[in-house]
Amino acid sequence: MNNQRSQGIVDHLFRHEYGKMVSVLIRVFGPSQLNMIEDVVQEAFIKAVMTWRAGKIPDNPAAWLHRVARNKAIDRLRNIKSRNERNIKYQSWQPIDEKIDTYLDTEIEDSQLRMIFTCCNLDLNESDKLALTLKFISGFGNKEIAKALMTKEETIKKRLHRARKKLKEQDQTVDIPTGKELHSLLNIVHKVIYLIFNEGYHSIKQDQLIRKDLCAEAMRLCKIVTDHPYCKTEAGYALMALMCYHAARLDSRMSHDHDIILLKDQDRSKWHQPLIIIGNRYFGMSSKADKFSPYHIEAAIAAQHSRSLSYKDTDWKILEKLYGVMNEVITSSMSKLCLAICRKENADFKGALSLLESLQPSDFYPNPYLFHAVAADIYQAIDRSSLAIEHLRSSLENAPTEAERKLIVMRLNDFNKASG
Q1: Is the pTM of this model over 0.85?
Q2: Considering its fold, how many domains does the chain have in total?
């Protein structure tokens, strides 16, 4: 097997299995062994690269990785001379070692669910909890976490340091709580899943703007949560509906040449109707809520787009109302920007400009790229070409990926042709 192919397979497995491996091993050996667990998981992936490039890939690569990591952990603990409580934990799990494949099939989902709730239940602020959960459930790097939480990488390093320390001090995973405690934790759990999906839908990866594997992983985690008898809620159903609607459009968002295709130019025959139908089912289940969550509103917006046969058929009046409700529920710079787009589409240029002028590029830290791109659209619509070009150039300077830079260059070229 060539090196590139083996590395590609390992990269794919890292995205799918890292969180599972960490969750299982922490449940087996306890959070106090966090440093050792992270080490053996990394070593398992390194061994996979070295072994698989030289020969045959095992029939079950995921089980192979789990087994290697677990055996390395056991070997390390065998070398500890003193018999403390940590060794007792290890000894109590020894009989399962021979049944590792069965254990994986039956316990991974429960281990991940416990890990999510353990991270979200720590005595930390919400941002620290989110950073830690994104790290251990999806294997996000600091840059990906910083983008998800709209902050600096250095800040994420500090948050992870605090959160790791707290997790090791706690030294136990938690059972899923009930009542009010469960409700407050589910809000964070849903947000983690939402952020994982967002990174898949619009990634910071230079060579991969869309990461379908992350979208699928977020949907898998959401299904684990919503299928659990204690955790099924209308907000969770709304989140699943939202992800189904967006995932249905993934194949229409990029060309074969890896160019971005905007919503107005997408071939809607490529929208995956079975996923839209599943989304409709979950959205229907979510409608029984006494109080609607932000996910309900976003799902309603996505559902409205999925019903439109073409961009021209889009009911922007309804969308403007929905974004107006969104701004009342969670006032954010992004929701205001989306409301400005709706007003522009409804030819309320004065209203769109008023909203735009209430925002600043710094409101979209660490990346004001989208603000400038939308500003360019609005200024173009009111024939203020010089301002539109100025914002396009600012958008180009801040665009995080090559595909986005290419799209902006094309728009700038169109301006030059029109003026020429």
Answers
A1: yes
A2: 1
